[in-house]
């Protein structure tokens, strides 16, 4: 009972902050601004709580348990939308194809860009490890890390006996209803494959059964509008969800552990920023002004950064490509949807490559060997298939990569305390990678609308 009054006080303060955010919405403050304000207040509020009560105090534990209703509830809503969004977006992309001949070109260009940039990202991750002398580094193991390692070991047991060819076969959906329910780690790419097959079937039906094809098209268009309405409802919760998630992260994080891993955090962001610069250079090659891209992509990138969900950013991603960057409809849908489960530059490229380069010397491997660097890049690129665009995707990618290279997985658990900090930057990079694939492909197919791209008023923001 001694902790009841302080706990209630913390919850009341949290509710008051939520009321302020709601008031800002009523005054029509921009969505992206409210999200960043929520992020900043959440970080400060959590640090203040830890400073007043101390890490692990029952007041923090109890109050965060209630605050997490908002944060975890928001994440659950985002996860709820993933499978419907993927299905509708990919099937919708097939319905928007102006010519069946473009299907192969779009798919090849989008996948090639996603996988190619992931390979570059993996190389950047390895080089940054060398730059910061992290190869062979060891990190402190506390109670949280020990528990996390035990959990990861169990998860790895599910995939450790699979060869890479067997892993590829595991992507194929054997029970699409189970995959729509997200029952497997690879359910996301399984739904991508199923959706693509449905889209191809639609194209075949369109040639012979025009009446049925028209009915299916109307059905998909109606479902698309319905799902987008659901997305808008969930997006309105973003500032409150971010506030709760950031409060929890800063209030419950072990600051000593974060300081211990500070070098790893800095190295991770150096790699992320370097890769983002490479994105801008590729855009420049495609005759897209990097400054224009940054201005127009900022709303969706800031949303991805704060929400840590590539899947949650999918609708904004597609709309930004179409209405702000001038990408044609079909390519925008393909690039954004494929980017959720294939070739994520941050979560499936930089992160597992860095962990592999760090841990390899601890088991006697010469990670500076050119041949071994090539092996890491190849394994990372192949393993980037099937990484879900939600929290935990980077962990799964790391388990696959480390398992394929016969490296210990403990390193994944040892960096748990800084995972949320790094994941924000990784997610923004993932989304930028998918938009890059869309712009590059649309330019290659001569479908990019420069009048939209160069129109300063053609911007997209969440409401």
From TrEMBL:
Domain of life: Bacteria
Family indicated by similarity: Belongs to the dicarboxylate/amino acid:cation symporter (DAACS) (TC 2.A.23) family.
Gene3D superfamilies according to UniProt: Sodium:dicarboxylate symporter
Membrane-topology annotation of the record: Multi-pass membrane protein
Record's protein name: L-cystine uptake protein TcyP
Species lineage: Bacteria, Bacillati, Bacillota, Bacilli, Lactobacillales
Record-level GO cellular component terms: plasma membrane
Record keywords: Amino-acid transport, Membrane, Transmembrane, Transmembrane helix, Transport
Subcellular location: Membrane
Organism: Vagococcus penaei
GO MF term set: L-cystine transmembrane transporter activity; symporter activity
UniProt main location, coarse: membrane
Pfam families assigned to the protein according to its UniProt record, in alphabetical order: SDF
């Amino acid at each position: 009972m001694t902790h009841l009054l302080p706990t209630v006080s913390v919850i009341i303060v949290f509710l008051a902050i939520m009321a302020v955010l709601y008031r800002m919405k009523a005054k029509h403050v921009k969505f992206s601004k409210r999200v960043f304000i929520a992020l900043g207040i959440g970080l400060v509020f959590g640090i203040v709580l830890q400073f007043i009560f101390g890490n692990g105090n029952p007041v923090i534990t109890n109050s965060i348990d209630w605050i997490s209703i908002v944060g975890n509830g928001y994440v659950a809503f985002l996860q709820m939308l993933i499978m419907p969004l993927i299905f509708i977006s990919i099937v919708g992309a097939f319905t928007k194809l102006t010519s069946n001949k473009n299907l192969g070109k779009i798919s090849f260009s989008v996948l090639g860009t996603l996988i190619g940039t992931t390979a570059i990202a993996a190389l950047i991750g390895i080089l940054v490890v060398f730059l910061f002398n992290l190869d062979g580094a060891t990190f402190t193991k506390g109670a949280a890390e020990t528990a996390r390692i035990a959990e990861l070991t169990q998860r790895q047991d599910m995939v450790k006996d699979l060869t890479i060819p067997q892993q590829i076969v595991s992507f194929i959906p054997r029970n699409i209803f189970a995959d729509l329910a997200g029952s497997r780690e690879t359910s996301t790419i399984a739904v991508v494959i199923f959706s693509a097959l449905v889209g191809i079937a639609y194209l075949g039906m369109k040639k012979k059964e025009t009446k049925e094809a028209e009915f299916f098209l109307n059905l998909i268009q109606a479902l698309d509008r319905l799902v987008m309405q659901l997305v808008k409802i969930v997006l309105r919760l973003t500032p409150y969800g971010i506030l709760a998630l950031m409060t929890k992260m800063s209030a419950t994080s072990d600051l000593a552990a974060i300081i211990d891993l500070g070098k790893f955090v800095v190295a991770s962001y150096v790699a992320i920023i370097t890769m983002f610069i490479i994105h801008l250079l590729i855009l420049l090659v495609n005759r897209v002004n990097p400054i224009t891209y940054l201005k127009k992509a900022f709303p969706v990138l800031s949303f991805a950064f704060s929400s840590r969900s590539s899947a949650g950013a999918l609708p904004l991603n597609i709309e930004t490509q179409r209405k702000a960057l001038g990408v044609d409809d079909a390519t925008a849908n393909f690039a954004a949807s494929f980017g959720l489960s294939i070739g994520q530059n941050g979560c499936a490229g930089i992160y597992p490559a860095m962990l592999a380069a760090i841990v390899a010397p601890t088991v006697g491997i010469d990670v500076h060997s050119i041949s071994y660097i090539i092996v890491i890049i190849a394994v990372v690129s192949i393993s980037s298939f099937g990484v879900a665009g939600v929290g935990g995707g980077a962990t799964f990618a790391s388990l696959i990569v480390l398992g394929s290279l016969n490296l210990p997985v403990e390193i994944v658990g040892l960096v748990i305390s800084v995972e949320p900090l790094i994941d924000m930057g990784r997610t923004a990079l993932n989304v930028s990678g998918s938009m890059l694939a869309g712009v590059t492909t649309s330019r290659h197919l001569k479908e990019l609308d420069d009048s939209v791209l160069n129109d300063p008023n053609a911007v997209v923001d969440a409401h």
